[in-house]
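Sequence only, no structure available. Ideas?
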Amino acid sequence: ELAMAIDFEAHYLRFSEARSLVDDLLGADRDKQRKLVGLIKKELEIRKNELLPVLKNYSEIKKMAGFSLVAIDISKVTARSEYPSAGKALGMLHDEITREGPTLSFGIGPDFIIMRCSDGVNFNLHELIAALRKKLPFAAVAGGGHEHAGTISFIEAAKDDVLAGMAEFIDAIK
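Reply:
I predicted one. Tokens follow.
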């Protein structure tokens, strides 16, 4: 709860001076901390409860061999300046679908793809990035994270090529 509260406040404060708020969140005054975290937790629950049905409605779920493949145009269901971010929103959707079994989720934007992968899926983000860079040298594919979560970026003009290359890579998953 505390980590979520800090993440939420950091999202909105960015580079603003907020030393007293950070002190309160980190427990300089335990009573203030409990109250503040409680308020933020309620707000986050409201946002999650409002956003999750939207994410589910606009996502496409395809049953693959041993896992569910989830794709959503994440930039059309999240706002850049609002919380949760596209990555957090995809994480919420991914966690929800993963309750039903192994899942590979992609949040697709105009020039990026956010990826989350649960245990039980033979997938490696670094291998996908390497395959796309080799197949599409003109797409300026970059990215990172760890094997099961991260982001791929590319030039917007290459989006269709990147999605096709990604589909080919996923189809080869055993």
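The first helix runs from residue 2 to 13.
Hope that gets you unstuck.
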